[in-house]
From TrEMBL:
GO MF entry, a single one: peptide chain release factor N(5)-glutamine methyltransferase activity
Organism placement in taxonomy: Eukaryota, Metazoa, Chordata, Craniata, Vertebrata
Protein name: peptide chain release factor N(5)-glutamine methyltransferase
GO cellular component: mitochondrion
Native species: Pipistrellus kuhlii
Keywords, in A-Z order: Methyltransferase, S-adenosyl-L-methionine, Transferase
Amino acid sequence: MELWGAVLRALLTGPGRRGGTLGRAFSSRRPRLPQAGRSAIELVSQWAAVFEKRGVPEPRESSEYIVAHVLGAKTFQSLRPALRSKPLTPWQLRCVQELSRRRLQRMPVQYILGEWDFHGLSLKMAPPVFIPRPETEELVEWVLEEEAQKPRAGGARGGPLILEVGCGSGAISLSLLSQLPQSRVLAVDKAGAAVSLALENAQRLQLQDRIRITALDVTLEGSWTHLLPWGPVDLLVSNPPYVFRQDMALLAPEICSYEDPAALDGGEKGMDIILHLLALAPRLLKDSGSLFLEVDPRHPELVGSWLRSRPGLALELAAVRRDCCGRPRFLHIRRSGPQGGCPVDAGPAPQPAGGPG
C-alpha cells in the first residue's frame, strides 16, 4: 500500500540515538556472527547483507544506525573516518549483534535506539507509544506559520493556549512549546504509556512548566467537560488514529507488531476519532480558534462534506495542505460564531506536567 510503504520508509530516514534494550531474534536460525577485529565499515556491510537476506526493509540504513549508535554517534555519516575503519572491541561487537537481532525481529529502529529526532528535538521513544513520522513535522510547521501571521491585539497577554488530543510521545506539543515561548499546552492521551513518555520528554527538554499532560479518552461521553476548567483554547491540534479498518491488516510488521493499534485504527472509514474532535471543537475553541489535523488523503473530502451538512457547528474547512509527497494530508478547520458549552473566561495556566497541584 502506497501510504504505509512511505510511512515505513519514514521510520528509517531520520536521526536518532541512545537507549534501547537488547533482545533475541524470533528465528532459531541465527545469523553468522562477526569475527573479532571487524571495523565499523565491515560490520555495516555484513549486517546489511543479513538484513537484506531476511527481508528487513532499508537494510543498509538499519545497519548504519545500529553501528553508529554503538559507537556513540547519531548517524554513520557523522563518524570520523578513523573511527569507521577502527576495529570494534568485543563488547561493541556484542552490542551490535544484539541490537541487530532485535532488528531481525522487525522492531523499528526508533525503539531499538530508544531515541529519535523530531523537529529539532531529541525525544525518547519506547514501545508501544506511536512513533512520530516526518510528515507530522509538516503539520507543526503549518501551525507555526499560521501563528506567525496572526495579529496580536494591543495589550494581549501571552501566547496561544493549545490543546493536543492524542499526544503520544509529546512530539507535537513539545515542538510547539519550543518554538512559541509564551504558549501553554494541555496534552491528553488515553494511553497511560503515552502520558508517561510525554511527561518524561517534557522534563528532558525542560518544558514541563508550560505543559499539563493528563490521561483522557475523548470518545467517552462527557469527557470533554474535564477540559472546561482550562477555558477556551486558541488551537486544537491532533494527529489522530486515521487508518481505515480494512487497511490495518496491510501494515508492515514494524508497525502492527510494536506500535499501539489504538493509535492507528481510525475505524471503518478512519473517521472515528476525527468525528469526536469535530464535535469537541465548537465546545472548546475560542471564536476564530483553529483545529489542525493530520488525516488520510481520502479524508479532506469526507470531512468537508460532513461539515457542510452540519452548519450549526459553526466550523468551516479553511484550508487543506498537501504533504511532501503531494497528498492532501493536513486540515485547518476554523471556528466562527458564538462559543457554546465552554466558559468564556480564560482558564488557569497549565500546572507542571505531572498533574494538578
